[in-house]
Every structure is written in structure tokens, then in C-alpha cells.
Amino acid sequence: MNPANTSLKDFVLDQLVAVPGVTVKAMFGGYSFYSNKKIFAIIAEGKLSGKANHGTNPFTYTAKGKTMTMRYYEVPEELLEDRTALTKWATECIAISA
After folding, report:
1. 3-state secondary structure of 80
2. Residue 72: in which H helix or E strand, if any?
3. CB 77 within 8 A of CB 38
């Protein structure tokens, strides 16, 4: 497991303490954040991305020679440090993933 991903996972879980029912599972070298058995955010390559209808820096990966783009967008750095803003962001991602 990538140490940067693990460190970020621990930090994000601490920041989201006010969001009920958040669980995390290791997945493909990163982590998936769940609420009500639905993924609402992922950590990959040391970055947190959330499920959204818009944003910047969409999460991409390559499979079988094709680049795939998912509806997970990178969280701006300033949100990571602001517990209230990150909680609001997570709540919005949870609503979108429901």
C-alpha cells in the first residue's frame, strides 16, 4: 500500500468524523470511502477525489490500453484542511452517489 495514500486516508477519516456511517476499504492500491454501501470518494496516487457532477482534474486510469475517466474529481487542497468545508463536500458527494 502506498504510504501517501494511507496517511491521507487517516487524515481524511479524522476530518470527516462528523459524517455518520463513513467506512473505508482498501482497493487497487488506494482506498474507497463508503456511506450506506455506496462509494462516494476515493484515494489514489496520494489524492482524494469525490463523486461529483462537475469539477476539475477528473480521476483517470488506464485499462487494456484505454484511458478511462470516472466522475470522481480531485478535492482542492484548501478543502482538505477545512473540516467544515470537507464535511460539506463529503455530504454532497454522498448525495450524488446515493
Report:
1. helix
2. strand 66-74
3. no
